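Summary for the steering committee. The consortium agreed at its last meeting that each partner would contribute one worked example illustrating the joint modelling workflow. Our contribution is presented below. We chose a case with several input lines so that the handling of multiple components could be demonstrated. No manual editing was applied between input and output; the record is shown as generated.
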Amino acid sequence: MTDIKRRDFFKLMGGAAGLALAGCAGAPMVSSTGEMMPKTGRRVVVIGGGYGGTIAAKYVRMSDPSIEVVLVEKSKQFVSCPFSNLVIGGSYQIGDITIGYDKLASNHGVKVVHQEVTGIDAGAKKVVTAGGTLSYDRLIVSPGIGFRFEELEGYDPKATPSAMPHAWKAGEQTTILRRQLEAMKDGGTAIIAVPTTPYRCPPGPYERASQMAWYFKQAKPKSKIIILDANPDVTSKGALFKKGWDKHYKGMIEFRGNNKVVKVDHKKMAVDTGVEEIKGDVVNVIPPQRAADIAIKAGLVGEDKKWCPVDATTFESTIAKGIHVIGDACIAGAMPKSGYSANSEAKVCALNVVALMNGKEPIPLSGINTCYSFLTDKEAVSVAAVYKVDGGKIVSVKGAGGVSPDLSTLEAQYARSWIKNILVEMST
Ligand SMILES: Cc1cc2nc3c(=O)[nH]c(=O)nc-3n(C[C@H](O)[C@H](O)[C@H](O)COP(=O)(O)OP(=O)(O)OC[C@H]3O[C@@H](n4cnc5c(N)ncnc54)[C@H](O)[C@@H]3O)c2cc1C
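What follows is the complete predicted structure of the assembly.
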């Protein structure tokens, strides 16, 4: 590349990055080395502006404002998976669970860059995006999940999700699934295929079945839902879900355990368990999961090639020094892959990143999780737990938490308050 061409190239990259950057005074400068925002002091870069990343970015800034924080998120807005099942059921709208990033910038000085991270150079301590590179002193990675599409015969990652939406990343997929339910005839069959654990949000598929049934009961009462579960039984709050299905949707939801879908055919709208082919009018195939692509690409996953092993107190990768992984992508012992877990991990991780950067001892982990699930639009159930580190592993604290005693409208109120609070915490 000639000097002039190189200059033009970096000018272009600067322009593109400038358009994509929120919360910085003026457009970022791309240096002659391709650096998007040359570092002037200590810097933490956070990848992923979801349940884990927004909180980690904010808490690093709150605990040490002398550290610059750059949050790199590919989308301009974040759509929450929690409560997306209620959008599918029809009692919430997608706008109710969508947040932006402006206030993280204006209230906390987090520099938000809207780019997709395509690589991490752990040796040079840089993340790579199409708009240029970003240097860091420590990196926090919270990119969520990716899918193991290759384990489903016949699955075409481009075509299958439009015909058989997974809706396991909220947004467009959620809307497609809702529209398909609206278009389905009364007396139709909806299939939900549940993958083997671990997957994001253990009770999520059963809440989804409940929300579909709630909609069918009002709009298409002759319809049916078949849950084909790769696991032997309902993996979370099983007794409460079954009680709710019996109370509200008798005969409408059929649960089939040990029925792992191994093959799909979106043209025929059929799934195959290896024993039987079943056709549906709406087919919600939730593929088996792993850490998001960037974690795989950066070599942060362990021997299982699926999830990222981390230190249980600092969430520093046991594979790459200076890189911390939180949220669904990491292996957090007994903590489930949930938004509340990601929020809790993000706080401990942020405080420990600041401690390590200031030469202080890390604080011990105190983790928390509560997962609410709606059976109707008004009744919900919950499971809660508290976590600590024991023998280097995250374990649940005995006697703390448990499941709610019954279906209740009070739990639904707590749940609505929870989503409101957590989304405000993430976006202000
Ligand atoms: C249907 C459903 C219902 C759920 N209900 C609940 C619930 O009630 N309660 C609960 O606690 N949890 C719930 N969850 C689980 C919760 O959504 C996840 O556990 C949580 O989102 C994990 O947070 P995270 O930060 O790991 O990932 P995410 O919140 O998914 O955030 C990841 C972010 O990283 C970005 N990203 C990824 N790769 C890149 C890249 N290369 N460059 C730039 N940006 C990137 C993505 O765009 C995304 O914004 C539910 C999940 C589903 C599917």
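The first strand starts at residue 21 and ends at 22. Residues 339-357 form the longest helix (19 residues).
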